[in-house]
Amino acid sequence: MTTSxxxxxxxxxxxxxxxxxTGCLVAVLAAGLPVRAAESDPVLxxxxxxxxxxxxxxxAEEELGPSLAxxxxxxxxxxxxxxLIDMKIVSKAxxxxxxxxxxxxxxxxxxxxNRLLMDSLLASxxxxxxxxxxxxxxxxxxxKQITGEQEVRARHILVETEDEAKAIKAELDKGxxxxxxxxxxxxxxxxxxxGDLGFFTKEQMVPEFSAVAFSLEPGKISDPVKSQFGWHxxxxxxxxxxxxxxxxxxxxxxxxxxxxxxQADYVAKLREAAKVERMDKPAETAKDAAPAxxxxxxxxxxxxxxxxxxxxxxxxxx
Length: 318
Prior knowledge:
This protein starts with 15 loop residues before the first helix and ends in a 15-residue tail after the last helix. It has helices at residues 16-19, 25-30, 54-63, 65-68, 73-96, 103-129, 132-146, 162-173, 178-185, 207-213, 247-273, 283-286, 298-303, and strands spanning 43-47, 50-53, 150-159, 196-200, 225-227, 230-241. 48% of the residues lie in helices and 12% in strands. It is an alpha+beta fold and 318 residues long. A hairpin with a 2-residue loop joins β1 (43-47) and β2.
C-alpha cells in the first residue's frame, strides 16, 4: 500500500495530508456512522473490510467543498474517495494508539458534536420557515419600499485633472462622440463600454456625482465635476422610476434572508430563555451580549438584484 495521495490533473496532490488541513472534523465523525447498504448507495471501496459508500463520498464532498471547487467531477470523486480511504486507515491507527482518550481530542470531539447539533437544528428551522408564502411576503414588502424611486442611466469620462476634463468638454461641445471619447481617454475600467454606468439611484454613487447626474435632463452633458476619484464629465442617457426586479430574479437572495432570519430569531428566542453568565464582562451587560443577526434587511433582498452599474469602479458606490 502506498501512502502517497493521488495526483490530480493539475498536479495538485489532494490526499489526506492536504485535505486534513481543512479541519473538517465533521467528516471524521461521519466515517464512523452507520450507512445503509442499498443499490442506491453502492459500496465504492473497502478498507480492511470496512465499507465506503457513495453517500460517504457525497458527505465528504459537502464538507470539503471549497477545497474541491476547481476540480472536474471525476477528479473530485477520485480524490475524495482516496481521502476517505486514507482517513479510515489513519483513524484506525489512531484508535489503536488510544488517541480518543487524549484530553485535547475529547474537547475537539465535544465541540464538533455541539457544532453539528447546532447546524442540523438551525438548518431544519430555516428550511421549515422558508415557504413560498414567507418569501413572497418579504418580496412584496421590499418591492413597496423601492418602487417609484428614481434611477438614472448615465455615461461618464473620468480623468485626473480639471484641465483634461475641460479639454474633453470642449471636444464634446464641438460634436465629438461621448462613448468614443470615453473609450480613448477615461481612466475608469468601464471605459471599454463607452463609460456606460447603467442605471443607478442617488445612494449608489458619491454625492458630488449623483447631485449633477440627477439634475441633468436626458441627452445633456455636464461641466467638469470633481469627486474623490478625479474629474468627471457626465452624460445622462435616460431617467426612469425604479421598478422592483422580478421575484424569480431575486428569489435566491430572499430565500437566504428568510432562512437566516428564522435561524437568528430562533437563536434569540432560545438565548432569552437560557441563563447566560459572562465572566469576562460585568453582570449587567451579560444579557446584551447576543450574537449579531446574519440577515440582510428585507428591502435589500430585492434591492441587491444585479445591475449594470454594479460592475463599474468609478464613481465607486459608497
